[in-house]
Structures are given as C-alpha cells and as structure tokens.
Write a structure and sequence with these properties.
Elements: E1 4-13, E2 16-26, E3 31-35, H1 42-50, E4 57-62, E5 65-66, E6 77-81, H2 92-102, H3 107-120, H4 136-148, E7 154-158, H5 166-183, E8 186-191, H6 194-200, E9 203-208, E10 211-216, H7 218-223, H8 228-234
Helix pairs in contact: 2-3, 2-4
The structure holds adenosine-5'-diphosphate and magnesium ion.
C-alpha cells in the first residue's frame, strides 16, 4: 500500500498552464521530496494527489487504482500543512481524535491510537492542552499525530517546517525521518530547502516551471545533474 502513479498529469488555472504533462511513479514506502523554487507547482501537484485540486488532464493511480476523480477522503492519504490547521478550541487529544471520531471509530480504539501516536511524538504530557499553549514544534507534532492515527497509505507534507526556527527545524527533520523509518509508509515531502531535500530524501524530484527536471537519489543528482538548473539547485559543480 502506498504507491502513486502520475500519468501525463496537467493543471491549468483558468487559461494558465502550471503543471505540464508530468509522469512520476512513487514507490510504496519511499520518502520522495519535491523540491524547486517558489511558484513552480509543487503544492499544486501535492494537492492534486490529495484530491484537493482536480486534474486538468491525465490520471493519478493510488495502489494501482484510478483515483483521478476520487474524493479526498477515499484516497487513504493524509496531508500535513505548514499552517498546522489545528482546532484552537479543542485539546490536543481531541485534535488528534477528530478524524477518528468523524469516522465513528470505537472510543477505546481511539484512545489506544492517541496514546501510541502521542508517545511516538513526545506529546504524552500535552494531551490536555490547547494548541495555543504549545510551541510551534509541538503544534506541528500534533498535526502529524492527527495524520498518523488515520494510518494513511501515504503522508503528504507541504513545507511542514517553514514556520519553525532553524534549530527546531533540524530536530523536526530528524523526527520526521525517524517516523518514516518506524512507520515504513510512503511520504511525499514538499520543500524549497535544498538541505532538507538532500538529508531526508530517498529520491528527489527537482521541479522547475511546472515540469520535473530530474528525479533521482540525492547522490545521483549531486554527481550526475542532468542540466545546469539541477546542478545549481542541488549545489554541485557542473
Ligand atoms: P509552489 O508550491 O511550488 O510554490 P504552487 O503550486 O503554489 O507553487 O503554484 C504554482 C503556480 O500556480 C503559481 O504560479 C501560482 O500562482 C499558481 N496558482 C496556485 N494556486 C492557484 C489558484 N488557486 N488559482 C490560480 N493560480 C494558482
Ligand atoms: Mg507551495
């Protein structure tokens, strides 16, 4: 579970084409990073995979099934936003429980999942607090916790660390990598930060103006960049 295949996917906003025909296969369990300058279409493509934007043409398969027109809730994916999107009036516990309650999961099962996610994310002592009583890093963990309890077949992160200060960002980077190791679930991680891309990714897709210039492991991109743009972006000499 967790493979995603994009075939000749495009996106227009009104008459403007922001994703050019794009093919990409994301393997089950891999950590793939979408990297590229601001405005190149990373978030748009992630939102299309999540089902939050429709596709203008082409198709999106999830686990071998055509999901192009599937509503977001049916896709089995969980999106983690940079803005956390937590409910300010609810406790951490209830924020994490929210998607499970909505899905009518049994209370005992919900409790068990919350405990497990909280211990994984060092949130056990904060379950009764409100988001306003947490640090930025803790809030980001709650948002990740809310995704974990749904046991998605893939996590979609859109610049999740860009609101955090530099030292916290390094910690959270390690925590998310650790989480990927322990869950072994597909993760798609959007960033414009080359260091995040190079340190976290199994593979990196380098975006530029609505196309993917190159996809490969950090080492491949570093050693064999396909063109000057990739070389410049990844920071290797060419
Ligand atoms: P990135 O995440 O790489 O910074 P985006 O995917 O947000 O880039 O945006 C890609 C392009 O699509 C940009 O030119 C942006 O202005 C445009 N765009 C994004 N969302 C919309 C929208 N809802 N309506 C019109 N244009 C949009
Ligand atoms: Mg973006």
């Amino acid at each position: 579970m967790g493979s995603i295949t994009l075939k000749q996917v495009t996106k227009n906003f009104d008459e403007v084409n922001v994703i050019k025909p794009l093919d990409l296969h994301i393997r089950d369990g891999e950590f793939i990073v979408f990297v590229g300058p601001s405005g190149c279409g990373k978030s748009t493509l992630l939102r299309m995979i999540a089902g939050l934007e429709d596709t203008t043409s082409g198709s999106i398969d999830i686990d071998g099934e055509d999901a192009t027109n599937m509503p977001p809730a049916k896709r089995g994916l969980a999106m983690v936003f940079q803005s956390y999107a937590l409910y300010p009036h609810m406790s951490v516990r209830n924020n994490i429980a929210f998607p499970l309650k909505r899905a009518k999961v049994a209370p005992a099962v919900i409790e068990e999942k919350i405990e497990k996610a909280a211990s994984m994310l060092n949130l056990t002592d904060y379950l009764d607090r409100k988001p306003g009583q947490l640090s930025g890093g803790q809030r980001q963990r709650v948002a990740i916790g809310r995704a974990i309890v749904r046991q998605p077949s893939a996590f979609l992160f859109d610049e999740p660390l860009s609101n955090l200060d530099a030292s916290l960002r390094v910690n959270m980077r390690l925590e998310i990598s650790q989480l990927h190791k322990s869950l072994a679930t597909t993760m798609i991680y959007v960033t414009h930060d080359q260091v995040e891309a190079m340190t976290m990714a199994d593979r990196i897709a380098v975006f530029n103006g609505g196309i993917i210039e190159q996809v490969g492991t950090p080492l491949e991109l570093y050693q064999k960049p396909i063109n000057r743009f990739v070389a410049g972006f990844i920071g290797s000499p060419k």
